[in-house]
Every structure is written in C-alpha cells, then in structure tokens.
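Summary for the steering committee. One of the milestones for this cycle was to obtain a three-dimensional model of the protein with D-ribose bound, which we needed before selecting residues for the alanine scan. The sequence and ligand used are listed below.
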Amino acid sequence: MAKRIVLTSDHAGFRLKEFLKKDLIEKGYVVVDDNPVLEEGDDYPDRVFSAAPKVKHDQGIFVCGTGIGMCIAANKEKGIIAADCSMPKEAHLARAHNNANVLCLGARLLTRDQAKRIMYTFLKTSFEGGRHARRVEKLA
Ligand code: RB5
C-alpha cells in the first residue's frame, strides 16, 4: 500500500504547505491534510498534536514559520522522530541515520523550490539501519 503523507501547518506555514500538497498530489502521493483551512493566528502545538497521531507508520510534513516550533512539539509525541531541515543533505541524513518520520520546514526561511527539494529528498531516502538502528531504538 502507498504510504500516506500527513500534512499540517500553522498560519505561517499554510501557503507553503498548500504548495507542497499540490505538488505531492500531482506526483501521485496519497496525502492527508490535517489542516486544510487557513486559520489566522493559530498555534503550532495544536496543529502538531492533532496531526501527529495520524502519522503512525506513514510520514509527515509539518510546516510553520521556522520549522522549529513544529519540530519541538512533534518530538514530544510517542512514535514521532521529527527533524527540522533547511537543506537536502540534512533531510537525507534525517532519514538515513535517524529514521525520522516527520519533516519540519520553515516557510519564512525557505523558498518554495528549496522546500520541495528538501521534501523529496526526505521522502525518497530510506533508513540505513545497521549501527543507526541501535541508536534509534534507544530513543523509543
Ligand atoms: C508563528 O508566528 C511562528 O512563531 C511559528 O510559525 C513558528 O515559526 C514557531 O516556531
């Protein structure tokens, strides 16, 4: 079964999240948008605590102004390993070494093109396992 991509954002990340959602759908990804309606002045912890339980065995893309708030909140949720990435190399390593299942992006810090490249690097990279598996198991 195709993996679902669970999307969410606060007000600051909403437009970038919509842009990424459109691109994912065009490429055939199965997308679950947990926050499809823009709510000005909403709070990133509320958005994360609603979306994170839906990630389960799938992957999430969470967008706020910096990516930082989303990442802090997401890492409080059991089963979530979230990484705030500002370049494709970080996204690659977050998957390959840390087995991150949520990518956090900063809409106020990234161009749309940068965000897209980071996102697809994240989605196309597999966990390497091996010595990294032992380390990741210690996070549970
Ligand atoms: C909202 O203004 C902003 O603080 C939020 O999107 C995020 O950047 C927090 O980390």
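Key point for the committee: Residues 4-137 form a domain with the Ribose 5-phosphate Isomerase B; Chain: A, fold (CATH 3.40.1400.10).
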